[in-house]
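To fix ideas, we close by showing one paired sequence and structure record:
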Amino acid sequence: MSLLVAEEVVKQYSNHLALDRLNMSVPNKSIYGLLGPNGAGKTTLLRIINQITAPDSGRVLLDGAKLGPHSLTKIGYLPEERGLYKKMKVGEQAIYLARLKGLSRHEAIRRLRYWFKKLEIIEWWDKKVEELSKGMQQKIQFVTTVLHEPELLIFDEPFSGFDPINARTLKEEILSLRDKGATIIFSTHNMESVEELCDHITLIDRARSILEGNIETIRNQWAGNEYIVRYSGDPEMKENALFNLLETRRENGYTDIRFNAKENMQVNDIIKEVISKGEMVSFNPALPSMNEIFIRVVEANKEQKSK
């Protein structure tokens, strides 16, 4: 079941078509990657979901109902461009933002102290925002985004400015929020983070969704005829009539080969060839990374549009 659904969404700015009949379905209690090159339409879609702007046609449904003022308390949005009041004290500002989301002052302080202690930032409570580093400010905004426990969380490049340790901490918190029932839209250019966090993705290019689905299903669909085999022993494996050898690695008595099976070749024949060299330990498809898929799909779409 999907928490958020976009149906045939169109948005035009002057002579620029930002979204062209875009469709997207975000499964409930999942982390959904929103991917695409710069200028593809991702930010426009996020602005529509947050009702900062409206579509020219089409509609967006949240939990089966069309977006409206009642939807705002169900959404938490951490934009890429941060916006805190520099002269305000951290605690004072966090309480103010929590009150805007409908929390009482008492409840806001209770939840804020829980999160500040959890993220080890309680000592910043009485500091002014301008005294904090970019990473520290992002932690504050992360807290104020999730504080009212919305059904839908939207994170736009949430790890920008974080060192590896704090980025890992934030990733763990995002996964925990998903496990507790939140649905999360995660917009990023970092494909490694996509593979670590996302259950599903949609890839937007030139205003349209050109790839959507479960991330593991997509990787298997794009695997092609490449495989990775490990066998014991150290005999040299050469190209033959069955496959093209792409890579060979030898370590601790094992040999790993990556190869591309030639057309009409049977996997069983390749396995027999491997066994003739040593004892086979594993045989798996060589799944492409999301970065490789991203590049292939966008370049293919570019070629198709140029024809």
In short: The chain has two domains: 2-220, 224-285.
